Amino acid sequence: MAVVLDKSHRWRVVAAHLGLICFIALIMFPFLMILLISLRPGNFSTGDLIPSQISLEHWKLVLGIPYQAADGRLVEPEFPVLLWLWNSIKVAALSGLIGLLLSTTCAYAFARMRFAFKAQLINSLMLVQMFPTVLALVAIYAIFDQIGGYVPWLGLDTHGGLILAYTGGIALHIWTIKGYFDTIPVEIEEAAKVDGATPFQAFRYVLLPMAVPILMVVFLLAFIQGVNEYPIASVLLKQQDQLTIAVGIKMFLYEQKYFWGDFAAAAILSGLPISIVFLLAQRWMTSGLTAGGVKG
Amino acid sequence: MARKLEHWILLLAAGLTLLAGLFLTFKMYAAGQPLLATVCLATLGLATYIYSTGRAYAFRYLFPGLLAVVVFVLFPLAYTFTIGFTNYSSKNLLSPERAKQYFLDETYVVDGESYAFTLHSDGAAYRIRLENENGDVFVTDALALKQATPLSVPAHRLEAAEAPLSEPADTKTLIQNLKVLKLVSVTLPSGLVASASGLREFAPVRKLYQPQANGELKNQQDGSIIKPNFETGFYETAAGEPLQPGFKVGIGWANFKRIFTDSSFSEPFLRIFGWTVVFAGLTVLFAFSVGIVLAVLMSWEALRFRKLYSIFLFLPYAVPAFISILVFKGLFSENAGEINLILQSLFGIKPNWFTDPFLAKVMILIVNTWLGFPYMMLLSMGLIKAIPADLYEASAIAGAGPFTNFFKITLPLIVKPITPLLIAAFAFNFNNFVLIALLTNGRPDFLDTAVPAGTTDLLVSYTYRIAFQDSGQDFGLAAAISTVVFLMVAFLSIINLRLTKVNQTENR
After folding, report:
1. What stretches in chain B show pLDDT beneath 70?
2. What is the spatial distance between Cα B200 and Cα B178, in angstroms, rounded to a whole number?
3. CA distances (Å), A222 to each of A10, A91, A109, A173, B358, in order?
4. Closest partner residue to A30 among B24, B309, B327, by Cβ?
5. Hey, is the C-beta of A134 within 8 angstroms of any chain B C-beta?
6. B478 → closest Cβ in A108, A115, A138
7. CB-based contacts of A84: which residues, under 8 Å, 6+ apart?
8. pTM for the whole thing?
9. d(Cα A167, Cα A225) in Å, to the nearest integer?
10. Which residues 30-69 of A are in CB contact (within 8 Å) with B?
11. What local confidence, expressed as pLDDT, does residue A219 receive?
């Protein structure tokens, strides 16, 4: 900036740096604490923040390895954390894939085809996406109770049912993908159609390969959504072996059975990969969304 | 060639799906759900129409996705509204037919007469031996006792000429077979039907209730009549006393009346509503205030290392909420938490974050601000970028300081585009179930309410507790409250759409 800088300017820069560093230290405090706690022996604070000795007992338990305690007891893992993580990944990946499949085809129709009630349909999808699912938990529970009566592997306490429940949340994905399709010139597909391709072939062999980046982003977003989803999973899943990590991990912190150290290790183990995936997806998402999402 | 194969595989898959759908429909119909079966059949018909004619080509692409949205988003909402008008709860769980069947299956022991019961193995099968007080002995033929299904078998008087039975089976065998034995009813030569009334005893039982033509049930034991009351959802005795289990009936606006007129419900409802509004409002205010200050700093070109700072500042948003909320739950823990440890050593205080209502609210706001400011920062950064730089240059020439810049240029220019986003954030936090469910679960609770309600409960977590954690499991009341909340959220969304539209048309 071609502006005359007065004396107070430098002072202000220093103050801003100081303020930011203090603020970041405050923000980072929980992360740092949880790392220290996961390495501290025992499940209760010993009085000082920085552990005097490092112990890997919590990490062993979380990874499913029993260890020998100081008094000679064999300590067995209390909860199947790895199984929960695997459940989460399975449910989130499958629901993400199904959601992607459904939303891509819908987005194609909305972006390229002409049909009755098109504007009304796409606008009502926008409205639908604003409905909070938490409000319908009772109904969702009752619906899957019913479904389970006919198809047991889609009922309560099954991963099939949970995946099915998540496929409804595709409204936003349809909008995102449609926005991206809108930025791709129609002429390319029309050229394919001139060469004798059916609409499906034009979609499958011409448009889809060009849309891979946005499909990746949408899949990752749906995946993260699936891993982080708590309310529906907490209503549908009951048995300990069926739980996803979002529902299971809070069991470490019951008042009667308080495993603070084990929780810390489990939190890092499950939180770190999800956060990294999110940071990666976020970078693509801002570019992907601004490329397409603005056009309605 | 490959394309042709693909075509056939698709056709085969479609055929199999259709068959599976038809089979399911049939099962629903057989289970006494004609309405559900009709809806299923209509959906299948629609699907067949869409995929077989060329006229609805676009809907071939739309059908699966729209179906998922309708079935798992729209239908649950509509269903929630209808549940709000019923008495669906753990007391009134069954359909009227199932409740009636429950009463018809009830049995009672006739007189005091009973038979000593022993089980005798006969090869791999078993025979049941019954003996009454007069020493008459009856036996059944050999029974497999492998499946737990209701079974009615005759017994005959044991004649002296018959081969003697083997030794009676021991208690362990009896207990193992008890589940199956309970379902066996033995018809004696006299015509009496006896069932297991204990581990070593059979007694003649009879159905307790006889259905009457007018839907009433007659008690065979004492001749009294019970009749279904479709207002309350219970079978009632002549004296009007309700009998468990009840059944689900429509009760009109009763749940809504309870929320708004019955003071034991309306008072916690209003208190929780008040806190919900305060919580959502303050969360947005705090998160936005922190976020926009940081955004201004992050857009300040004189500041170095901005990239690095913003990565750190963004981290709380990247970590899954269910993990960071639980981390805070542990850190704030009153006795074992690290935050109280620090406060204790620095100031000698140990605040009761979870048992004091005010402090619990403060904690919730701290945690939610931590969770929410990066999003606000991101939004504000995007909007600040769009402000033309010459405005700031002009103000610098006029000698304005950073505060004047912020309040006279940045904020006024941001307010309009960000308002819809703030309203959306308000609506989101209005229903921020995960935060409350994982952090405090609504506690500390009010002590003076009919259903469990907490000082930190939001309306959504309150309905969740009524439906899934209270012993009464009053789904009807929970659904009614959900409906009210939904109307509020819908109202907010409409305002929001209006504002967005106004903004868009102004920008054009």
Report:
1. 1-3, 111-112, 507-508
2. 10
3. 45, 11, 21, 8, 37
4. B327
5. yes
6. A138
7. A243, A244, A245, A248, A249, A270
8. 0.83
9. 11
10. 30-31, 33-34, 37, 44-45, 47, 49
11. 92
Q: Give the ipTM.
A: 0.89
The pLDDT value given to residue A221: 87
pLDDT band for A296, please (50, 70, 90 cuts).
very low
- Show residues of chain B in contact with A140, CB under 8 Å: 72, 76
Which residues of chain A make contact with B485, given a CB cutoff of 8 A? 135
Supply the pLDDT for residue A292: 37
CA count, 13 A, side-chain hemisphere, B388: 4
> What is the model's pLDDT at position A269?
93
What's A49's DSSP letter?
A: S
Helix (H, G, I), strand (E, B) or coil at B467: helix
Return the closest-CA partner of residue B249 out of B228, B225, B232: B232
What is the DSSP-derived secondary structure letter of residue B71? I
pLDDT value at residue A2: 44
Listed residue (A77, A263, A257) closest to B338, CA to CA:
A263
Of B279 and A6, the one with more pLDDT = B279
From residue A228, how far is each of A130, A232, B125 by CA, in Å? Answer: 18, 11, 54
| Distance between first and last Cα of chain A | 36
Q: Which residue has the higher pLDDT, A228 or B264?
A: A228
**A140 and chain B: CB distance < 8 Å anywhere?**
yes
Residue numbers in A near B330 (CB within 8 A): 37, 253, 260, 263-264
8 Å CB contact between B351 and B335 = no
A125 close to B (CB below 8 A)? yes
Percent of chain B at pLDDT > 90 equals 29
The secondary structure of residue B149, as a DSSP letter, is S
| B10-to-A130, B5, B13, B426 alpha-carbon distances in Å | 35, 9, 5, 47
Cα(A125)–Cα(A103) distance, integer angstroms: 11
Res A96 pLDDT > 90: yes
| Interchain proximity A133–B73, CB inside 8 Å | yes
Q: How confident is residue A47, by pLDDT bands cut at 50, 70 and 90?
A: low
Instruction: Dig out the tokens for A251 from the structure.
Output: 């069991």
Distance from CA of B254 to the nearest CA of A (A): 18
* All domains in chain B, ordered by first residue: 2-83 (1.20.58.370), 96-102+210-243 (no CATH), 107-207 (2.40.430.10), 259-507 (1.10.3720.10)
Could you identify the residue written with the tokens 């044991």?
A: B158
